[in-house]
Amino acid sequence: MLTALARTATRRPLTVMLLWGLFLLLGFGLGTGVFARLSDNVPEVPGTESESAARYLEEMDPAGSSITGVVAGTPVADAGMRAEVERAVADVREVAGVAAVPDPYATPGMIAEDGRALIVPVTLEGGLDDDAEERTLDAAAERIREIDAPDVHVSGGPLLGLQMGERAQQDVKNAELISLPVVLALLLVVFGGLRSALLPLVVAVSGIAGAFLALFLFSEVTDISVYAIQVTTMLGLGLAVDYALLMLVRFREERRTTEDVVEAVHRTVAAAGRTVLFSGLTVAVSLTGLLVFPSVFLRSMGLAVAAVVVIDMLAALTLLPALLVRFGGRIPPARTPGKGQEEGRFFARVARFAARRKVAVLAVAVPVLLVLALPVSGMNIAVGDARQLPADSEARQLQDTVDAHFPPGTGVSPVVVVARPGTDDATADRIRALEPGATTRELPGGGAVIEIRPPGEADGAEATALVERVREVRGDAPVEVTGTAARLVDFREMLRERAPWAALTVLAGIVVLLFAFTGSVLLPLRTVVTTLLSLAAALGVVVWVFQDGHLAGLLGAEGLGALSLTAPPLIVAIAFGLAMDYELFILARMREARLRSGDDREAVVTGLSRSGRVVTCAALLLAVVFAAFMTGGFSPILQIGLGLTLAVLIDATVVRMLLVPATMALLGRHAWWAPRPLRRAHDRFGLREEQPELPREKVPSGV
């Protein structure tokens, strides 16, 4: 199969490059339209009580979403300032689509006690379509910003989502400007030539175009999160470089034994292409676990990222071979080790050390990883607020201004209780009695909305406890709870219910693929266990930094008491897939060496010596990409970036360089064991396109 694919790509390389060129134009042309379609409605889970209540309100409540303006930095009671604010309020009331703007000077709680700040809440009409809502938001926000005061900020509601989308777009551009030159410099060091270094970047740019196009297509049928741009772009860029690096290293090795470039490309695809194929499949399968969750956010992320992985894989298996046919003749072969020298000498020594001291290596490495993983036991997740944004963002400045001038809890999203028709007065009274200051407003048709402002944060422990109390006291009455806290409660419950099924789906798929790749039953199980160790260690550090606040300032962040609810599932799904990536790089070389020599122990050393440099370089390049996306200052992306960076580095060093040879030595020949029926099934159905027997190595003339 792979040989046929290689021959197709090499027979008409110009056609292949032209098709990929059209794909790039489509991705960077049509695909970038996704930036205008991003949503910040991450906690929504279809079928939950909070979502049902929100839909009911959209249909029945004449009031729509709202935004908030804050004017600060000057005495707001000054006659001139008051006149200017009142003119702005009057103008905003006249904006088409605005339902209400209360007078901040006549509404209790809108003016700060120090007299140097006031709040201007703006409520939009219900039922506005997207275009009308955007026009209303732009007009209302722009008029408020025209108020002549030292500090004027507008955000909240749908405007916050638009601001996050703009920030996501800017962060992606900055990350690409940072990461691509650094990656190119590192590739120049690795290959020692500009042509070899540029080819992975061509594949990487294809991955970025694929990310944009995949997200745009998915946005036609589902919501796309503001986090999707950074996550898919960073992964698409990183994996493209990984796959291209693996293929190029193998191509240069093949050039040592043949001067025919086309034949070298065929051999490369037959050998390294098999690894790329299985790697892409395992990463994609790791992300299918996200499809088990009913959350639109998780499902859309799983589909989008899996699509990007497949695009990277196809680019490495088609575009790169076509490029190598055209330009590979100018790429020098890999250096042949000198007389008495061992290829990958450093990694061979590490492998022999770990194999000889297998018990000691396991006794040290495993406890260290478990200690790093300890904070996971106290992990908490939350929806978060504007504090997740960088300090220079307007939403964050609004939040900081409110916190500085108003009492705690001002502007906190309420717990929204929807009392549908048929709710008795006694039940409504019990709900209102849970917290002082609850307000009630009637809905058309006989229903009502009870808004209860919780103490503390909108998604804090007090708010979620209040949601639980409301659901306890309502009894059998037709009462539903929505709002930020209720959505968080439902999201957590969804994770608890579906996480075991997601894990089972991923593990089953990974075990099947690794069995198809290796023909072993024990190797997939060992791989899963060691991968989970590195993953737990990386996630533990993320909790320690961003939840507990240790060293968070070094990353331009702060401890928020909880992780963003987006971070843990994405870190787990993506990092697990990336770990399989490196495992396959190493196992492919070990399996190849074992088939040739029949020596299990030496196959471990040979496999690591020949793959260690590729794995280390790939991990370093991927870490650079992830780190570049941590420069934007958006806390959820910082969390995901740090988690993936640590997972990649820990996995490529501690796990793959030490635990893999140690456990392989401990298992010995049993590592490749499978029951006889499964062995026969693998021999019959497994993908086994092996590289033909190589002749004795020779150096091409002129090199």
From TrEMBL:
The SSD domain, residue ranges? 201-326, 503-666
Q: Which Pfam families match?
A: MMPL
Q: Does the keyword Transmembrane apply?
A: yes
Which stretches are transmembrane? Answer: 177-194, 201-218, 224-246, 276-297, 303-325, 359-383, 501-523, 528-547, 567-590, 611-631, 637-659
What the entry lists under InterPro entries is as follows: MMPL_dom, Mycobact_MmpL, SSD
Q: Which keywords does UniProt give here?
A: Cell membrane, Membrane, Transmembrane, Transmembrane helix
Describe the family membership recorded for this protein in Swiss-Prot or TrEMBL: Belongs to the resistance-nodulation-cell division (RND) (TC 2.A.6) family. MmpL subfamily.
What is the annotated localization of this protein? Answer: Cell membrane
- Return the protein name: MMPL family transporter
- Major localization class: membrane
Give the lineage. Answer: Bacteria, Bacillati, Actinomycetota, Actinomycetes, Catenulisporales
